[in-house]
Amino acid sequence: MSGIIALDVYVPRHRLHRSAIASALGTRATRGARAVASYDEDTTTLAVEAARDLLADRAPSALLFVTGDPVYLDKSNATVVHAGLGLSSTITAHDMHGSGRAVVGALRAALDAGSAGRDVVLVTSDIRTGRPGSTDETAGGDAAAAVYVSADEEPVARLLGAGSATEEFLDRWREPGQRWSQVWEERFGESIYVPLGRSAVDRALADAGLTIDDVDHLVVAGPHERAVRSLKRLHGLRSDADVADRMTGTVGNAGGTGLLLELADVLDRAAADAVVLVVALADGADALVLRTTDRVAAARPVAPVAERVGRGTLAVDYPTFLSWRGMLDREPPRRPSPVKPSAPSSARTSAWKFSFTGSRCLECEAVHLPPSRVCQQCHAVDRMDELRLADRRASVATFTVDHLAFSPSPPFLAAVLDFDGGGRFPAELTDVDADAITIGARFEMTFRCLYEADGVRNYFWKGRPVLDAEEVA
Amino acid sequence: MTSRGIRDQVAVVGVGCTPFGEHWDKGVDDLVLDAASAAMRSARTDVDAIDAYWFGTLASGPSGVTLSRTLKLDYKPVTRVENLCATGSEAFRNACYAVASGAYDVAMAVGVEKLKDSGFAGLIVDRPVGDGTATATSAPALFSLLAPAYARKYGVSDEVLKDVMTRIAWKNHRNGALNPLAQFRKEMSLETIRSSPAVAGSLGVLDCSGVADGAAAAVIVPAERAYDYTDKPLFVKALSMVAGPAKGPTDPTYDYTSFEEVVRCAEDAYRQAGITDPASELAMAEVHDCFTPTELVLMEDLGFSPRGQGWQDVLDGRFDLDGDLPVNPDGGLKSFGHPIGASGLRMLYECWLQLRGEAGERQIDTPRTRAMTHNLGGSPGNCVSFIGIVGSEKDA
Fold it and tell me: Which of A368, A397, A414 minimises the CB distance to B137?
């Protein structure tokens, strides 16, 4: 029987304080801040970031990518995630896009595949916003998560049972190409969601052979905030049961991905042998009953998800947020617009462009970024090995703040990065204040979209500051 | 490596240069015709007497036909050359070799660039279509990388380094103010330069060369025929061109405080010309001051200042018009302006004026008879370098 081997999340570093929206629009302020994907992030780049650590020492047979906001239509985004992660071409990659409901569907499919002996990594990401002034805008949050499912390895949590309730009703909708969703009056949705949720929970518990009294942790997530709040007050739930809500509070409602954010936080604190009831409310209801194993503590990452999410955040102002989401069209610099990357050229250099793979000389070990056929040190020809440096850290040799170069969010920041163990690359920087760049500062690489031209996203790697305490000190 | 040079084998017998600046009323053809005609008048010759042409432009027109169509040349050899900011010098170098080889008696080098028609800020260089991974840093930003690296290596504070950069721009503006062909014929106060709007790193607008339209040209003949054309020819002492392996951006041993391409190019040029102490032997130098930190680093790479001392020499005024070694007496790229394909030949134009005593208000009073032109094309650790040395006397 398969289970969850590992679960990791990625939350962008930028935060928009809800009070900033209120003061700009003259509306009533709500508390807290929401996570905001930077101008160079999209659902595809978020997915790569979420799955990177998880796949550092694992090779699944398939990658499933789920998002409510796919970058491309009529073209796979999962293959971009696959390339960004540097996965072998023998690992399949498939998309499941369009609505939050797909997340649970994909998770169940992954667990089924796991039971059938196929390791699957499920990656989900969402960028949530709405019309300026809307609840979707203030309450939304951008995030990604990755789950590794297998029957081979000892899991941190096993699936005990599942239940589902599906119905067609109109709560929220968005036509392809529209920038925001529209929603029906929320009390209607609540009246449908809550009974569906109860029904799914009942079926899942029955399937697991448990009762509501056995539940130690409850996760309810979905875009309909009011229905989610209602279902969290689940009848019969023990008073000492843990009801997850920390991530939505700090990140915002991350749509389908929100479910896995909360589950990750629960797995960070759950004891062994705990029962976790997970309910997704998205155009129907899906409930899963999981039981943690005695590996749940040992398998935890060094820093809990909730702590990592709060680290190194950067405030973004409301006009900048609007321009990043394409809702405020600002005057560009007086420079030529960038041209779309060439398809054949990108295909030839795929390992470099998508997974930051350079080369190392077999004769003298000199590292080359980008890969080179001729060694810059010993001049040997065609004596190279591939070397992926996406996870290698680097120090700034020198740097600049470029007010002239094209950037979707000027100024353009760049530094010459010298990588630990060899190799140099002059990289564009992101997620950093210009004033914080110094010679010797520590950076790591992150998968981003440099710009978009003719509808083509130009994906590549940028440097971002390392946040580890020992590195920053 | 063999680099024999062609010392004293050919001579420049005429030059021409248009004013540099915003020529809204002149096209590429007007600029080319004006510069070429001026050079022919200067050499007291005409199109029929010129055997071959080398035409330098970065992006203002393809092939030799851009020149032959403009001058309506009757089926002459015209070669278009491009080597980034060394383009004009590259046209000159190849024209000199053609004459030295004996293939032609009279050659002309013409360089032009029309930058102001683009409507964009700064220099626009079309790159080949690629995979989109080349970091899109602008030219000023690439050269601004020198400043923090130099300051750190030599223990100079960022404030003092900014003073040094400002002093370079101030000097070149001051020289340019005396030059009727310069784009910016105005002195700038240190404070104005220091507080000019930020472009990249510690570079303000006034740390950057002027984006300009312009053209320049020179006529080259065998040395033994030089006096048939003019009483005061310039003899070519050295021509050196170096293209580096471009590993600065990929090799961690490169420290962004020097241009190895220039160091190698200078060694070659000084050997060709028989120069051992350039700072005391040259009357002047036109160097590639595309951005103020570039000129600082060049003072050391060209051997004018010891390593780590260039900043002090700049502040001491050693390279001022009345200093030990005047650098960019015509205002340089900074204030003369930088129409890419024309700049190398514009530098030669200044050598012509200075070594013949025709530079007017900015005439350098010196017994020295040799002058340098230098171009750098590309960016730190990733460039070509050109050095030419000309002299008013033929060596014994």
Answer: A414
Judge whether B10-118+213-234 and B139-207+237-391 match in fold: yes
Q: Which of A332-336, A422-426, B316-320 has the lowest mean pLDDT?
A: A332-336
In whole angstroms, give the CA distance from residue A402 to residue B171: 25
Put simply, the answer to whether B250 touches A353 (Cβ < 8 Å) is no
Could you tell me the two tokens for B145? 């990388």
Block residue for tokens 């925001």: A180
> Per the omega criterion (within 30 degrees of 0), is the bond before B233 cis?
no
Give this complex's ipTM. Answer: 0.94
A347-472: which CATH number, 3.90.1170.40, 1.10.520.10, 2.10.260.10, 2.40.50.840? 2.40.50.840
Q: How confident is the model at residue A470 (pLDDT cuts 50, 70, 90)?
A: low
**A39 close contact with B: CB closer than 8 A:** no
Residues paired with residue A459 on neighbouring β-strands, in sequence order: A449
Interface test with B, best of A400, A430, A460 (most B CBs within 10 A): A400
Token look-up 């169509």 returns B69
Please answer whether residues A1 and A159 qualify as being in contact, where contact means their C-beta atoms are separated by less than 8 angstroms.
yes
Best to test chain A binding among B124, B138, B211 (most A CBs inside 10 Å): B138
Establish if B140 touches chain A: CB-CB under 8 angstroms: yes
Instruction: Please give the Cα distance from A320 to A356 (Å, whole number).
Output: 29
B96 is catalytic: no
pTM of the model as a whole: 0.95
Interchain pair A400, B144: CB under 8 A: yes
Fold classification of B139-207+237-391 (topology level)? Peroxisomal Thiolase; Chain A, domain 1 (3.40.47)
CA angle A298, A300, A306 (to 5 degrees): 150
Q: B255: which chain A residues are within 8 Å (Cβ-Cβ)?
A: 397
Q: A300 φ, ψ to 5°?
A: -65, 145
- SS3 state of residue B281: helix
Query: Do B333 and B343 contact (CB within 8 A), yes or no?
Result: yes
Round to the nearest angstrom and report the end-to-end CA distance of chain B: 26
Kindly report, residue by residue over B135-192, the tens digit of the pLDDT. 889 999 999 999 999 999 999 999 999 999 999 999 999 999 999 999 999 999 999 9
The answer to whether A333 contacts chain B (CB < 8 Å) is yes
Number of C-beta neighbours around residue A343 at 10 A: 11
Confidence of residue A302 (pLDDT cuts 50, 70, 90): confident
CB pairs under 8 A between A and B: 127
For residue A178, with 0-12 CB atoms within 10 Å meaning exposed, 13-18 middle and 19 or more buried, which class applies? exposed
Q: What percent of chain A has pLDDT over 90?
A: 87
Rounded to whole angstroms, the Cα distance separating B138 from A406 reads 8
Catalytic residue flag (residue B23): no
Joined tokens for residue A269: 């604190």
Residue B269 burial by Cβ neighbours in a 10 Å radius (0-12, 13-18, 19+) = buried
Nearest alpha carbon to residue B37 among B67, B11, B64: B67
**Closest residue to B148, CB basis, from A341, A349, A399:** A399
Distance, CA of B123 to CA of B211 (rounded, Å): 7
Structure tokens at B163: 């003073």
- Asked if CATH classification 3.30.1490.20 holds for the domain at A3-296+303-324, the reply, yes or no, is no
pLDDT tens per residue, range A159-213? 999 999 999 999 999 998 898 999 999 999 999 999 999 999 999 999 999 999 9
**pLDDT computed for residue A471 by the predictor:** 57
Partners of A397 on chain B (C-beta within 8 Å) are 149, 252, 255-256
- pLDDT grade, residue A346 (50/70/90)? very high
Judge whether B84 and B377 are in contact, CB under 8 Å.
yes
Pairwise CA distance, residues A234 & A218, whole Å: 9
